[in-house]
């Protein structure tokens, strides 16, 4: 949602939205792996 807001403010059609989606997917996968894959 942040990427969509930046796109609208900057006047781009679809530049930051897909970048934000990819970063969000990577961050969520990292958090899931860290939460359930870490051995304590």
From TrEMBL:
Identify the keywords attached in UniProt to this record, alphabetized: Membrane, Transmembrane, Transmembrane helix
| Superkingdom in the source lineage | Bacteria
Q: Per the UniProt record, which residue ranges are transmembrane?
A: 15-34
Name of the featured protein: F0F1-ATPase subunit family protein
Q: Which species expresses this protein natively?
A: Parafrankia soli
């Amino acid at each position: 949602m942040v990427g969509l807001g930046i796109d609208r403010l900057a006047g781009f059609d679809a530049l930051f939205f897909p970048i934000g989606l990819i970063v969000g997917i990577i961050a969520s996968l990292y958090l899931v792996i860290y939460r359930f894959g870490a051995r304590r």
